[in-house]
Design brief:
Blueprint: H1 3-11, H2 23-36, H3 47-50, E1 57-62, H4 68-76, E2 80-85, H5 89-102, E3 107-110, H6 115-118, E4 126-132, H7 150-159, E5 160-170, H8 173-184, E6 189-191, H9 197-200, H10 210-217, E7 223-229, H11 232-235
Helix pairs in contact: 2-5, 4-5
The chain binds S-adenosylmethionine.
Length: 236
């Protein structure tokens, strides 16, 4: 097993594939995905080249699922280059369909765990991040699988620009508390909340995802955190 395979085995706990792809999804995965992939061996990733020099800034969405949020942001912000990380191929296939439908050209994809991309992104290169409804891993014995950890927060602090905002949503009460606990003890982030509505409401520029809709149908309330990356000068 190569070092890369070993790392991926260590980090990824979710599914890579679900039911068989439909014909148009297979076409999108075989013909379109290769042209949108972040090159696997490039380190550091050259973001200007990746987006053909057409983007003014770069955003990152981790675990986009079926891509409702990512597709919406891409169509609303064509001047921004957005990288989506999602190891589940069926989700990638659904997102590709949405990008084709919208004619969005400003998305690139990493069909693997985000950790493997974050370590190759240049310092302070990302202007906004999204981590929406990450797997809550509710069993105590599985909590070490949660994406929010000191290690991943340090990786996010490294790649986010000064004052960049990371949006984190969850419908899971215990994971919501866990997320706050980890971000509040990080010296690199502050929680941008002054009033309850700052974290109990999404706001108009934060569309609903599939998991949030499911939580709502099942009677669970969600929270919407915004953490700002502290300026490197002031944190020294
Ligand atoms: C509960 S789903 C939420 C999907 C979507 N954000 C939503 O709100 O509908 C969590 C997603 O994160 C993906 N995921 C799990 N581990 C990941 C990792 N290390 N890096 C990137 N994505 C990951 C899973 O494949 C899954 O699609």
């Amino acid at each position: 097993m190569s070092q890369t395979d070993e790392n991926q085995k260590r980090i990824l706990y979710g599914r890579r594939r679900g039911k068989a792809l439909r014909k148009n999804q297979r076409y999108a995965v075989e013909e379109i995905l290769p042209g949108l992939r972040v090159p696997e061996e490039e380190n550091p990733v050259n973001l200007d080249a990746l987006f053909d020099g057409k983007s003014e800034k770069y955003w990152l969405e981790i675990g986009f699922g079926a891509g409702e949020h990512l597709a919406w942001q891409a169509s609303q912000h064509p001047e921004v280059g957005i990288i989506g990380c999602e190891p589940f191929l069926n989700g990638v296939a659904v997102l590709l369909g949405k990008l084709l439908e919208n004619g969005s050209q400003n998305v690139r994809l990493h069909n693997e765990a985000a950790e493997h991309l974050m370590e190759r992104l240049p310092e302070a290169s990302i202007n906004k991040g999204f981590l929406l409804f990450a797997d809550p891993w509710p069993k105590t014995s599985h909590q070490k699988r949660r994406f929010v950890s000191d290690e991943n927060i340090a990786a996010l602090a490294h790649i986010l620009e000064d004052d960049a905002v990371l949006r984190v949503g969850t419908d899971h009460t215990d994971y919501g508390a866990w997320i706050l606990h980890y971000f509040l003890r990080s010296k690199d982030f502050v929680w941008e909340a002054e009033h309850p509505e700052d974290w109990l409401k999404r706001g108009n520029d934060w569309p609903q995802t599939r998991y949030e809709a499911k939580a709502m149908r099942e009677g669970r309330r969600s929270v919407y955190y915004r953490f700002r990356r502290i300026s490197r000068k002031s944190s020294r």
